[in-house]
Q: What sequence folds into this?
């Protein structure tokens, strides 16, 4: 960390209970890491670009469900189906209230 700007690898605990453990560049979540949402009950492991999910990664929910895929600018673009099936196209959209559609 230089002049209180995180760079390199580190862990951060947000005020809302979420955590991030991974790479930072110039104060932004950037590179590989794990983001855990306390309230949402999920964890994302994979790539980040300027704080947004980006590249190959997967999400795991508290109930054990897992979704592998590719993200761009925070949106999941492809999903790898269970059993090694071909990926399908999937774009997660959120309403203004934050609910997935």
A:
């Amino acid at each position: 960390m230089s002049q209180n700007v995180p760079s390199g690898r580190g862990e951060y605990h947000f005020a809302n209970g979420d955590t991030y453990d991974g790479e930072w560049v110039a104060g932004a979540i950037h590179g590989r890491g794990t983001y855990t949402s306390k309230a949402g009950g999920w964890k994302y492991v994979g790539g980040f670009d300027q704080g947004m999910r980006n590249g190959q990664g997967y999400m795991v929910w508290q109930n054990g469900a897992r979704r592998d895929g590719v993200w761009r600018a925070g949106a999941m673009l492809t999903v790898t189906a269970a059993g090694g099936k071909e990926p399908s196209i999937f774009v997660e959209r959120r309403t203004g209230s934050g609910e997935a559609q």
In short: Residues 83-91, 97-101 have pLDDT under 50 and may be disordered. The longest strand covers residues 28-37. Strands lie at 8-13, 19-25, 28-37, 42-49, 52-61, 66-72, 75-80, 88-89. The radius of gyration is 14 Å.
